Amino acid sequence: MRSWTFLLASSLLQVAWVYALRETRGFTRIVPIAVYALVGLGSTACLAKALEGIPMSTAYAVWTGISVAGSVLVDTFLLRQPGAPRMLCILLILAGTTGLKLVESPPPAERPEAERVVR
């Protein structure tokens, strides 16, 4: 569960990272540049921690899905972009990422070293 919490945090920080990038206006505004750097590092650190307990392919798919969905929500509600068709797409993304979580297999058990065959 801890890995999934880090993955969610990383995804949300990624949304903040993209928004901060937009607000830098071509890297001409210092405060958004600082926010951009901080949340970018935070997102990367959280993703690295999440990868300790979640398979890379699953983590990347979920991370991307949540990041895209979050970006669309920011566009729709904060930046007032049209969003009705986008909401359906978000639901499809969330359904897919939930499906990945449901079908995730547990990590392989520790295997004892193979016994040596002596001839």
Overview of this protein structure:
The model has no long low-confidence stretch (mean pLDDT 85). The termini are far apart. The chain is mostly helical and 119 residues long. The protein has one domain. The protein is flat and about 45 Å long. The chain has four helices and no strands.
What is the strand and helix layout of this fold?
Elements: H1 2-23, H2 30-50, H3 56-78, H4 84-103
Short description:
By secondary structure, this protein is mainly α.
Distance between the termini: 47 Å
- Low-confidence regions: none
Taken in chain order, the helices and strands follow as HHHH
Taking the sheet with the most strands, its summary is: none
Can you count the helices? Answer: 4
User: Whole-number radius of gyration?
Assistant: 19 Å
What spatial form do the alpha-carbon principal axes imply? Answer: flat
Average pLDDT metric:
85
In terms of DSSP E residues, the strand content is: under 5%
Count of spatially separate domains = 1
SS-based class: mainly alpha
* Total beta strands: 0
- Helix fraction bin: over 70%
Give a quick set of tags describing it.
single chain; 119 residues; mainly alpha; 4 helices; 0% strand; flat
